[in-house]
Every structure is written in C-alpha cells, then in structure tokens.
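Reproducibility note. Readers wishing to regenerate the assembly model reported in the main text can use the exact inputs given here. Chain order matters: entities are listed in the order in which they were concatenated for prediction.
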Amino acid sequence: MKAFRHRTVFLAAGLLAAVVPPLEAPAALDMALGAQKVVQNQPVSACNQAARTALTSVFGGAQEIGSGNTGEWQAYNAGDTANGVTQSAAVHCYPVGDGYVVTFTCAAQVPPSTDSAAALCSKISAAFDGKTSAMLPLTTSAGGR
Amino acid sequence: MGKHRLFVAALLLGTLCCGAIALASVDLSAGIRYVSPSGTLADCSAKAKAAIEAYLPGATEAEAGSGEWMATAQNPATGAPSAAAAVRCYPLPKGYVATFLCSVQLPLNPYGASALCLDVAHKFYGGALTPLASMPSPTPVPSGCATTNLVGNWTSDDNPKLTFKMGLDGDVTDSDGVSGNWNIDGNKVTLTYYGNHTMTLSPDGKHLRGGGYSLTRQC
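Running the prediction on these inputs yields the following structure tokens for the assembly.
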C-alpha cells in the first residue's frame, strides 16, 4: 500500500514537472521604426481614419493620444494571465502641404510574441494601405527598419 | 511525510518555472511631437542623435539621411534589451517635425517609457530633465561549493563521462544535452532529470547523493 502511495506521488510530481513549461530565455524588447509614407492630395483626417482602422484590424481597438485631433494613434494587444502586453504600436499622422506624412512604430516582447516588431509594423502598414488605396494611391514611401 | 515533501518540491519547481516568465509587459510612449519653425532635416538629425544618446548608447539612423534615429539599451540583469527610444524627423516647407517614441519592458526596466521619452524630448528641445534610475546590476554567478545552491559543474561518481552543468535559474544540462531542473531546500535537493530524484547535499556542498545518483561538484 505504502509503495503504491509513493508511486502515485512520484507520478503526480512527474506529471506536474512535465506540464510545467521549461525555463525560457528572458523576453527581449524589440522596437522597430516601420515605414514612413507621404500621401498627396488627401486631408489628414483620411490618415486618421486609416490609422484607426489599421490598428483596430490588428489589435481590436485604437485610441488617439491626447485631446482633439492630434493625429497620434496607439494600440496594445490584450494581455493574458501568463503575460502582460506583448505588442504595441503607434501611427502618427501629420499634415504636409496638401497631403500628409504617416509613420508606423512598433514594439514587441519576443518571446512570447511570435511577431517581431518589424513584422507587426508591416501588418499595420499593409492594413493602412488597404484602407487608403480605396481613396488614393500612395505617392511616395520609404522603408524603415 | 515523504509524500508531503515531494509535493512541496514539485510545487516549488512549478512556482520557480512560471515566475521566471510571468507578466513582463511592453510599455510604449508615443505622445510627444515637436514642430520647429526653422532648421533643416540635418539639424533635426543631429539633435535627435544627441538627445537619444544622452540616455541610451549608440543611436543609429534607419537609413543614411532619413532623419529616423533609434537606440536600445541592454538590461544587465537579463542580458536582453529592455529599453528603446526613437526620434523620427521629417522636413517641412519651413522647419521640421520630430516625433518621440519610447518603449520599455516592465517591470524589468527601472523606468517607464513616458519618463524616458520626456527626458529625450526635453534634451532635444529644452525642458526639465529628470534623472532616470540606473539599470540593475547583473546577478553575480555563485562560485565555489556553496550549500545554498547547486550552481556549477558536477560529475557522476559512477560514470565520470556523465557530467552536469547546473545553472543559476535552477536549470541542469547533462553532457549529452539532456536538460532538467534542480531545487534546494535546506540540504534536501529535488533533481528533475528523467523523473524526480530526492537527494541530499553534503555539509561541504561538494557531494550530492540519493535517488539513484551520486555526484561530485568541481569546486
């Protein structure tokens, strides 16, 4: 009986050890300067709308920083019980001439984020382009890092 | 009694493992923008580089002449980056616009993203500078035959070809690359390696015996 109990205890502890995740390398902060794009003949309000839509498509929501039309948008992913926020991004719109300049900046904690900050920015930038292409093509663009 | 100790050891192991990766969070600051009515992109770039490097080492430009600058700082406690700051300059018909973006990993980083960005921005265009807390010092790796940990290199007394490297984080790897974990409570050790083994550390911290193993530390 005693041997049976010990076997059960060993089994339970072994099972627990098996399901406990292994010690992982420390999560590293990854920040990326995404694309900078200039759009002609579009009001900055179009940038704001596209920024909000792009961030919402990736994160499920977005908020404009500050009060009024600042053109500075930010979003976070939802944390869970095991991790806090692991991805965050900002989109900045600023009027230039008869158009605007927009920049994408992202940060991620890798791991557990499977997307690097650069990959995250590419997603948001693509979502932004998808939104603005319905209005007018981008005239110039520059890659970030 | 033995059953109780086994469960406590298993739970401690679980706490150790999960605690090491829990609840680190990304903090991003993106709300500071500065518009200069005069100056060129090159002026903005020079100020951006200097402002970032006042707080983080080695600011680099995304592409030469782009006016987009960024730097990251390693956290000595983890050996991974935990802080980053960027200044993005764009030329205007008259002057330029600069946006300030910072991110940190909390609670590992000793200061928040907003505090970092505020200092970088104030360094750029003037304003009160608040000293940032220093990065933590790296955790020293214990040496010798301490009786409070198992860190070091161990050899099996029965098979000298079988060696173990036990790490600071409670990890153990043998000479074949098989990994496991260790935990110590007093002189009682739980070695999780092909199952759990309850062992006893000798008073001089040099010998580990029990659970079918007999090991000697190289110290």
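We highlight two features of this model. The helical segments of chain B are 2-19, 41-53, 113-125. Chain B touches chain A through 58 residues (CB under 8 Å).
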